[in-house]
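Trying the structure run again after the queue cleared.
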Amino acid sequence: MIARDAVPAMSLAAETRRAVDRRPFLRTALRAGVVNYTAAARSLPIDGEPDAVATALRRYADELPAYETDSRSARVRMESGVGRLEDGADRDDALVTVGGAAFGPCDGGSTAIVATGEVDAAAAAAVLERLGVEGTSPDAAAVADGTLVLVVDRRAGATALRTVENALENAVVRDGDDPD
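Done. Tokens:
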């Protein structure tokens, strides 16, 4: 009978892969080939020699699919005068409903950015990441059936529109996605 605390130790390579997979930015950098392996090895919480961890990082990078981008075909438009719809209001015109919050036309102080076409969860992730870099945090965001809707402050509308267009023109091809 095996003692409960006698769990087999994970190999250094497996531990390194696991640590990288918990840091999507590092995984992306490995795919793009822009990592200082020694510095990355020192930053990971792995019990091992930095040179050995760096070697494990190099080997893992060789196994990962290359970093690729592909343009998504989508129509992007902006709709002003959007806001949170009051409870009991007619929600048939809601552009997006997340949880109990519905956003739609109501002379509100927000703008909706609506993209239709080749948009999915991976495209939404790329858009949200780019918006974060721009310092824009949407009040609501959702994607379904080839439509992405974001609700942002009215003052951020034009910047958000350009950011969404750019993100969709240069969307990262996720692991397992076929760029063709």
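The mean pLDDT is 87. Worth checking whether this holds up in the mutant runs.
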